[in-house]
Specification:
226 residues; alpha/beta; Rossmann fold; 5-stranded parallel β-sheet; 8 strands; 50% helix; globular; binds 2'-deoxycytidine-5'-monophosphate
């Protein structure tokens, strides 16, 4: 097996830097990067655009009959299509995060998105980031990582990111939102956020993106050498 054929499951809480680090690993190894959070965010966006409230579970489930979500790749970059239109940054707002977390609690939503993710996993050569990748989507992945960083560290990063995007945000509110989402993601009944029994726990607090990516590539090389 080659480096670019491995399946890497990368789970962890919001803002741990999973997507940035996964993209860096993909660039170093030729793996395809799959951002599964973007799928939940797209269901959330659809609910929001249809005026369905975050706590209207039946209303959200009803939308699954009409929603059309496709995952495509353009020049190697993942692109989620909602009714044929790329969602782009519309899924990256704070409201988008709140909606994504709300819809991801619903088992019917998870079931709706399961096949799409499993198909990509079956093709191999992927680094997939999410919350239940090592436990549900790719329980037989060659490499499983549960990536963490303290809530303060994650809030600092998200705060800087949003300021850089020109958004008017308050640090304490960003931290509070992260703590609330951690709680919701780990306490839900459907596929809660938790490390797979055989996952490597990686606290990336002391590492930058490059160092974190090198750590993961190191795990992959060690796997192949064994
Ligand atoms: O990774 P992210 O912040 O884009 O994820 C958005 C939301 O979707 C987050 O609240 C957790 C949820 N999610 C999930 O439940 N399972 C996944 N595999 C990916 C994301």
């Amino acid at each position: 097996m080659e480096l670019n054929q491995l399946r890497v499951a990368l789970d962890g809480p919001s803002g741990a830097g999973k997507s940035t680090i996964a993209k860096a690993v993909a660039a170093k190894t030729g793996l395809i990067y799959v951002d599964t959070g973007a799928l939940y965010r797209t269901v959330g966006l659809y609910a929001y655009e249809n005026g369905v409230a975050t706590d209207d579970t039946a209303g959200i489930i009803a939308l699954l009959d009409t929603v059309d979500i496709k995952l495509t790749y353009r020049d190697g970059v993942q692109c989620v299509l909602l009714h044929g239109e790329p969602v782009g940054d519309r899924i990256r707002t704070e409201t988008g995060s709140v909606y994504a977390s709300a819809v991801s609690k619903i088992p019917e939503v998870r079931a709706y998105l399961l096949d799409m993710q499993k198909k990509l996993a079956d093709e191999g050569g992927v680094i997939m980031d999410g919350r239940d990748i090592g436990t549900v989507i790719m329980p037989d992945a060659e490499i499983k990582i549960f990536m963490t960083a303290s809530a303060e560290e994650r809030a600092k990063r998200r705060y800087r990111e949003q300021i850089a995007r020109g958004l008017d945000v308050n640090f304490d509110e960003v931290l509070e939102a992260i703590l609330a989402r951690d709680k919701q993601d780990s306490e839900r009944d459907a596929a809660p956020l938790k490390p797979a029994d055989d996952a490597v726990i990686f606290d990336n607090g002391p590492y930058d993106v490059e160092g974190s990516a090198d750590y993961i590539v190191g795990l992959m090389k060690r796997y192949l050498a064994e």
